[in-house]
Amino acid sequence: MQFVGRLPGADPGLVHLSGAASAKTAFPTAKRAAATDLPAASPSPTLPRMIEREITPVLVGLFRQYPFVTVTGPRQSGKTTLCRAAFPGLPHVDLDAPDRRAFAKSDPRGFLARFPQGAILDEIQRVPDLVSYLKVLADEDGGTGLFVLTGSEQFRLSETIGQSLAGRTALLRLLPFSLAERRRTGASDALDDILYSGFYPRIHDRGLDPTQALGDYLETYVERDVRRIGEIRDLSAFRRFVRLCAARVGQLADLGSLGSDAGVPQATARHWLTVLEASYVVFRLPPFFANIRKRLVKLPKLYFHDVGLAGHLLGIENAGQMAAHPARGPLFEKAVVVEALKHRFNTGRRSNLTFFRDADGLECDLLYENGNGIGAIETKAGTRIRGSRLAALDRVAKLLPRVSAKAVVHGGTDRRSRGDCEVVPLEDLPALLARLDASPPLPAGPG
């Protein structure tokens, strides 16, 4: 008798045996589906060259602790490849496929009975009612490590999961490659190549031309998803709006100004930006709030999850155009902020990133809180670090007593210290973030 599908090292008492009896155990009221009801799910796959993702140990560990693990993130960020590599014994079902989706909708019990040892269910938000049946399955089984779920529509998936699987699933977010993961593909470490080609795995795994691949990504995935999610009828106006968002990377997300420039009402601009967030195209970085005697800005900053996609929308068609492009600085800032976001997500944590700006224009690009203090990080695409930038960091640190470390991340290769401020190249950013995570608590204040 064969044991299949369960995670090595899991409680043997939770392992289901193959065969009809185990289907009844896994879902007692389900009938066995006929072999013709559903095209065969993908078996343990022959994967393309696999770059081990930093989030893998977190994913495997949580699968031992929860009935389900849900992995969400942008289309083509590598969710399926990650899950299939982490759990090669689990069959894989893509619910984007119309026939499989139809079966899951029409006979959810029969559909789940096909997978007595669990499965990887891709794009689970396409069959939201299936989640209620998964809840019943988890409650009746009582074990862990049942199904791995993935999805690429952030808000819809969160709503679906939150209603039925609260307390039964761990939630992870997978963004495209981190700097270290991208480097392991053999991709160029030259800054302009990084800013031009971005971090989508397929571009680097398969050596695709970034201009072609990013254009295809926009048309194939983004536009299809936004039409379905947001019921957008004027696609040409929406495309103009997306390009305007790319031109405002690193700027305050002023919806009135965005809508005016795009020729749409502010309410439409708000809806469209929410749709882009739901599809993991953009995100808004919140401002830091503190009880200090300074007026702080209240609007968030606008960023894209992938720097290459933002550059593509700005018309950049090769790395050579990046050096003199006016958006090089904002794109570099975006790369730093998103790398910090990936660092948080890849260690199984939520975002706690903010930026600082007061009414007088004093600003810090990124505040990284670690529970023991705050790392104040400035970005500079060039290689020359002016004293005024360090002085601005000092002023921010005086206003925010919890600042425990200061750093400038730049586009060169030098590593040095300027007083109590670290000056590091982009490639050293992951190590800087790890040091911030490990920093000791600040001493207690008076009283």
Explain what this protein looks like in three dimensions.
The structure is a single chain. Residues 1-39, 43-47 and 442-447 have low confidence and may be disordered. Helices cover 41% and strands 15% of the residues. The strands form three sheets. A six-stranded mixed beta sheet has the order 8-9-10-11-13-12, with helices on both faces. Strands 2-3-4-1-5 form a five-stranded parallel beta sheet, with helices on both faces. Strands 6-7 form a two-stranded antiparallel sheet. It has 447 residues and is α/β, with parallel strands linked by helices. It is globular, with a radius of gyration of 24 Å. The chain starts with 19 loop residues before the first helix and ends in a 9-residue tail after the last helix. The longest helix is centred in the middle third of the chain and has 21 residues, at 210-230. It contains 18 helices and 13 strands.
Tags for this entry?
single chain; 447 residues; alpha/beta; Rossmann fold; 2 domains; 6-stranded mixed beta sheet; 5-stranded parallel beta sheet; globular; disordered C terminus
